[in-house]
Fold this protein.
Amino acid sequence: MQQPDLVIDYQGLEYLGFATPRRTHWNLPPTTLVQLALGLERGNRGETAQQTLEKLRLHRYRPAIGEDFVLAEARLAERAGHHAQAARLYGQLVATCAEPERRHFHQFPLARAHDALGQSEQAFATLLEAHVSQVQWI
């Protein structure tokens, strides 16, 4: 199914080498914008990544984007110190992950969020599960 493009209008793309001073309006598909938000978060451009997610949050095809949107929200919540929200989102990703050998990608950050919330027992239990998943991955 062809997803309609979203127009994005901000200077943050020049950080990644996409924009020139003459072009800051981009028509990008929603899946690309999620990946852009993840890249911006990774490059310590959290505010710009958050702006990108805000545009996507209102988009009618957001459910079709998949787990990457939830992952981007979780990472930004964790970075902003909203550990309860991050734990909820990472927990959602773990619960919906169909492949047990891939769950550790979400379980390790979930354990970090539990630890930040002072939930040491939950953090340790999550780490044990994550190590089992990681061994299956290897």
Notes: Confidence is low (pLDDT under 50) at residues 1-7, 20-25. The first strand starts at residue 6 and ends at 9.
